[in-house]
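Sharing a chain and its predicted structure for anyone who wants a worked example. Both blocks are below, sequence first, tokens second.
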Amino acid sequence: MKLYSIGELAILSQIKAHTIRVWEQRYGLLTPSRSEGNTRYYSEEQLMKLLKVALLNKSGMKISVISDLTAEELDEKTEEAATNEKSIDAAVEQLMVASINFNQRKIAELFDTYNSLYGLEDTFEKIVFPFLRVVGNLWVNGKITPGHEHFFTNMCRLKLFAEINDLPLSDQKKPGVLLCMPEWDFHELGILYYHYIFRKAGYPCTYLGQAVPADDVIYTAKATKSDIVIMNFIGPTTQKEITEYLEKITNKLPNVELLISGPHVNFPIENKKITVYYNINILIKRFNLKKNQL
């Protein structure tokens, strides 16, 4: 069984560590174990309880009321909140509870709820991607398994593929866009979402997905007469690896612009054929990618 520090509980629940301690002392909500050095540690069961408490508290229920609920009542109220809650802040708790339990049905229901309340674009930009940043940090620290991250990510991929499949044909008058990940990178959810918003805005798109060798990018861009290539660098890599990969592409595609982003693109790019974008809003503004706003 995994154990969590109070700091990790604070990250997961978005409840300050000081507040968690107050809830422990005043209401007896959690009962942590202690190490030989007297450090608090919390079980997975206590984490789940705190996530439910956090969800109910953010939905407007007073902590004094929540503390009096039985375990069965807490589950019942949480279920109601997950169905009716309209707060984006509370969505992280909803997704965390469902993902830790590998609850595919609940995640599908939550997606439908968020989509109807906020639209698909705000669901991904303001709920899914922030949630994945929290999950990624916990995975790196060994507090959740890679299976949790892959499970949720693949649920998101399936949702996006279904939405993309329902979009109308693109406007051939707009520039052609090719989207992919470099050959060593399998973190395609972000670039798949870009595919969705470009397709929705009427751009002719070619999607190659994850782990695409430079030669395949070159061949496909020529074959599809793409004007723009968009890719993210998410997985572990080096400046040398990125530079060599991009130079190979730009040398063979002199009339194509590369738009790149990612945490590893943190060095000066001197190649004028390459544009670095630092967030999705830059793409939205430049290409007039209309999106619903909350």
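Comments welcome. The domain at 3-163 is CATH 1.10.1660.10 (Multidrug-efflux Transporter Regulator; Chain: A; Domain 2).
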